[in-house]
Design a protein that fits this description.
α1 packs across α4, α3 (42-50) packs across α4 and α8 (122-143) runs parallel beside α9 (166-196). The chain folds into two domains: 2-184, no CATH class; 197-253, no CATH class. It contains eleven helices and no strands. It is mainly alpha-helical. The protein is elongated and about 65 Å long. The protein has helices spanning 2-24, 31-37, 42-50, 52-88, 90-94, 98-106, 108-117, 122-143, 166-196, 204-210, 228-239.
Length: 264
């Protein structure tokens, strides 16, 4: 218990110091560093330090009690930072805010409880991020799958929005990060699906639902009652020339095969 208490205290200190540093960074003449931190790969480091790294450290020193202590410390720092940031911006705090409107629409308790209920999804988004960084590159090496500049997807920018402070800001940044992670994961998965399994689903509802994220369902995948000959033909047509992007990828629409998503 004594060690878990130390984990709690040290996490509050470390987490709080990092939060203050990130908040003041643009005001300390480090605009270039703040811009770098807002994009992958540096963003990955700082989001890790603010999320799962304290859990691992806590587990190392105090097992599950340490994990619980680190999560509790993160909650404390979140509350303190939110309050402090709102006090730093009194005009925005007293003006129109998302949290005020949603509290009025659904009630304060349901609104805040629902936000906290989204946090268990955080490890899932990190698993997606790990797959993007460590698994997808193997497909690039082995099969010459298209490469993506992660910083164009995994980034945050809502801190620049005027009037977004405290509670609203921290949750909007959370959504900002995970939306980029999800979108990049979807883009990579489009390549995977169209390359290995260009066949429509038998369930029409599933096709309707999935075609938003997988446009090739209506843009080239073989119908569910088609033949393997058709599947083979579409695979050879789309990939026989060396291209590896999903069928509707913007790169396929250009003359030299260079598109916006190509990068380091």
């Amino acid at each position: 218990m004594h060690i878990a208490l130390q984990v709690l205290c040290w996490t509050i200190v470390g987490h709080g110091g990092l939060a203050v540093l990130l908040t003041l960074m643009p005001r300390l003449g480090s605009a270039w560093l703040a811009a770098a931190v807002a994009r992958a790969p540096m963003l990955d480091l700082f989001v890790a330090l603010l999320t799962w790294v304290p859990w691992v450290v806590g587990a190392w020193f105090a097992g599950w009690l340490g994990v619980g202590a680190s999560i509790g410390a993160q909650a404390v720092v979140l509350a303190l930072w939110t309050t402090g940031h709102e006090l730093m911006h009194p005009r925005a705090r007293k003006g129109p805010r998302i949290v005020k409107s949603l509290n009025k629409i659904v009630g304060r308790a349901p609104n805040h409880l629902a936000l906290w209920a989204t946090l268990p999804a955080l490890p899932a988004f990190w698993m997606i991020r790990f797959a993007q960084v460590f698994a997808y590159p193997l497909l690039r090496v082995i099969l010459n799958f298209p490469k993506y500049k992660h910083s164009e997807w995994v980034m945050v920018s809502r801190h620049k929005f005027d009037g977004l402070v405290g509670h609203d800001l921290i949750w909007c940044l959370y959504c900002d990060w995970m939306t980029g992670v999800y979108s990049l994961g979807g883009e990579m998965l489009r390549n995977v699906e169209s390359f290995w399994c260009p066949i429509r689903f038998y369930d029409g509802k599933k096709c309707d639902h999935c075609k938003v994220d997988f446009p090739d369902i209506d843009g080239g995948w073989v119908r569910a009652d088609g033949t393997m000959e058709e599947v083979v033909n579409i695979v050879e047509e789309k990939y026989g020339t060396g291209r590896r992007e999903w069928f509707g990828h913007p790169v396929r629409l250009t003359v030299k095969g260079e598109g916006d998503s190509a990068g380091g």
